[in-house]
Amino acid sequence: MKLLSLLPLLCTFALPSAAQQIKPNKYGLTVITTRQQYSQLVKADSNQQLINLETFIPGIRKDVRYATTNNFTRQRLYNGAGIYLRLPAAKALRKIQEALQRKGYGLLIYDAYRPYHVTEAMFKIKPNDLYAADPRKGSGHNRGVAVDLSMVHLKTGKPVAMPTDFDDFTFKAHEQYQPGDPIVTANRKLLRDTMKQYGFKGSRTEWWHYYLPDYKKYPIMDMEM
Ligand SMILES: [Zn+2]
Does a structural domain hold residue 190? Predict the structure, then answer.
């Protein structure tokens, strides 16, 4: 009788560390791979929920290149083209969309949450962390708190001019690059300033990549949404 009454207590303690009970993968990373693990995680902390940005953020646009062959690997890496982020990242992005809309712009998402096996596939094709995260570390995308994005003109829906196309891994995509066209500089700055204002950090080498600095709170996931 005594043992039985202890059980619920044990479970309560186990829940917040749901992720810690999972056996680490070959690189020592804890990866959430099943619906059950995911729902345990969300039950313990609602911020772990992956949110569908298309229903959560009015007017958001997407061009998910990894769901097509138009990407650096020339292969279709995603089955679906859904765009998901953890709740705090989704909330911040919703505010960013509102702020940009007041200035005549809107968000264009290239990529958001990315299942871990896709990072592994990318690294197999291009074994260089210039292109995608090293699977030994995983990425903010695998954790659901990194996003690749640009802006569109609200009136036309057309992408604004930026220093390069998405996934152009040259110096022109770097933060230090000074575009010749002041409009390009202004677009990049507006995106960067607005993202920073709502808590995202930018990349020094990819103008389109942003992430939440507390990404370690969110375990790596390998589940199709
Ligand atoms: Zn990225």
Answer: yes
